[in-house]
Amino acid sequence: MGSRTTLALAALAAAALLTVSPLAVAATPGNPVRGKALFGRAGQLFCGSCHTLKTARSTGRDGPNLDKAKPSFARIVEFVTKGRNPTRRWPTGMPGYGGRHPQITKAEIQDIAAFVYTATHR
User: Fold this and answer.
1) Which residues pair with 59 in a beta bridge?
2) What is the C-alpha to C-alpha distance for residues 37 and 91, in angstroms, rounded to an integer?
3) Across the chain, what does the average pLDDT equal?
4) Rounded to an integer, what distance in angstroms lies between the CA atom of residue 69 and that of residue 6?
5) Which of 5, 50, 64, 86 might form a disulfide with 93, Cβ 3.0–4.6 angstroms?
6) Cβ-contact 53, 116 below 8 angstroms
7) Quick one: how far is CA 115 from the chain centroid?
8) What is the pLDDT of residue 24?
9) Which domains does the chain show, CATH number per domain?
10) Does the structure show a pLDDT above 90 at 35?
11) Is a pLDDT exceeding 90 seen at residue 18?
12) 67-74 contact pairs (CB < 8 A, 24+)
């Protein structure tokens, strides 16, 4: 490759990086649209009853405020799957929804994580 070709390719790559949306850069497995519906679903899973998340219009106080915590995608998947041990601040802890006796599928957990992650990392 000549220096002109290399320079042109570098310019194209830089332009592409500047035009990519923030959500595309932070691509995650899962579908955030389905995750939003799961996050707000009443019944077996209703994340908003415990968590505050502005995008979901939830104001729960029993669990961490997700807008402030800004958890990583991997951390969200871990907590939704395994739950979280009780702490002094949250004595009931968080139940696990995956694992040995899953209440929701791995794909649904990834969808929820994609929604929370994209909502908190804009």
Assistant:
1) 52
2) 27
3) 79
4) 42
5) 86
6) yes
7) 5
8) 41
9) 22-120 (1.10.760.10)
10) yes
11) no
12) 67/119, 67/120, 69/120, 70/120, 70/121, 71/116, 71/117, 71/120, 72/117, 73/28, 73/29, 73/113, 73/114, 73/117
Taking the model in full, what pTM does it have?
A: 0.73
Residue with structure tokens 């310019």?
11
**Sequence-distant (≥ 6) Cβ neighbours of residue 110 within 8 angstroms:** 28, 29, 30, 35, 77
| 84: DSSP letter | B
pLDDT surpasses 50 at 8: no
Contacts for 46-49 with beta carbons within 8 Å, 24 or more apart? 47/112
Question: Distances in Å between the alpha carbon of 34 and those of 45, 84, 107?
Answer: 13, 23, 10
Q: Return the residue matching tokens 């799957």.
A: 81
